[in-house]
């Protein structure tokens, strides 16, 4: 498998194929008791946890029989309420979790047959809480994989400078800081820089902009679109912000209760929601928008 954007495209082979993928988790006793009483509300976390659909006594499907094809070079946004299985899906994609059923192919190769460590090194991964190593400086955090790959120190340093510029952090000011000396949003940007360090062909981004303010978020979204355009990589971008999902994704994957409800171009989903949950999502986004347009400005 190719491990960087610079190598040749594999043509018609999909970047990622999910084939009937399932992931089941056991319930703790406390949660199991609770699960029998909760109302199944499509927008609530209870509704998103796959309780009713799993039919299992002691467990539930965080991801339930999910099939999807991601083409090489796509930017797919994954949208769904809290607990619907978005992170679980990403973690199965780089084998941090093993599926309980189905298979995942990366450029036509079953990931189950690949060494998990090698696999992870080939994919950029921005985890939900930035996940920086606390004892390492920003510079060392960003250059973790390049150093593992035995890049020359100067090449590592130049790449860190380039990446800090890219995510809008002044390299002179930030490269020697430790994560505890950064705000949450700055940590997320360093996490993004780290994931981009070796220009992986596949990027898994788990709510990478969750902790940044609206203006920075817009700037970072624009940066991300530019990076995606320039690299031609395949990006899976998880968010529960519908505006972000529909703005960034060339296709949007909508999940609920571990299931894939619809995966299509944003405008197609708006015109033809395939499910009542999708319809509710779109309606609620429109309601929120209405406030801005119906409030007269001085
Ligand atoms: N390791 C685990 N053991 C048991 N249950 C888990 C584990 N990881 C996740 N879950 C459960 O699986 C479900 C899906 O979790 P997941 O983290 O994929 O949700 P999510 O869609 O990413 O939510 P959020 O938007 O809040 O990040 C949740 O009900 C969660 O509690
Ligand atoms: Mg998550």
CATH topology: Rossmann fold
Choose one word for the global shape: globular
Radius of gyration: 20 Å
**Low-confidence spans: pLDDT under 50, at least 5 residues?**
1-10, 32-56
Which strand-content bin applies to the residues?
Answer: 15-25%
- The H-level CATH homologous superfamily, spelled out, is P-loop containing nucleotide triphosphate hydrolases
Element pattern in H and E = EHHEEHEEHEHHHHHEHEHEEHH
Second rung of CATH, namely the architecture: 3-Layer(aba) Sandwich
- How many strand elements? 10
Please give the share of residues in helix: 25-40%
Which strand order does the major sheet show?
6-7-8-3-9-10
What ligands does this structure carry?
Answer: adenosine-5'-triphosphate, magnesium ion
Class inferred from helices and paired strands: alpha/beta
Essential attributes:
298 residues; disordered N terminus; alpha/beta; globular; single chain; binds magnesium ion; binds adenosine-5'-triphosphate; Rossmann fold; 6-stranded mixed β-sheet; 4-stranded antiparallel β-sheet
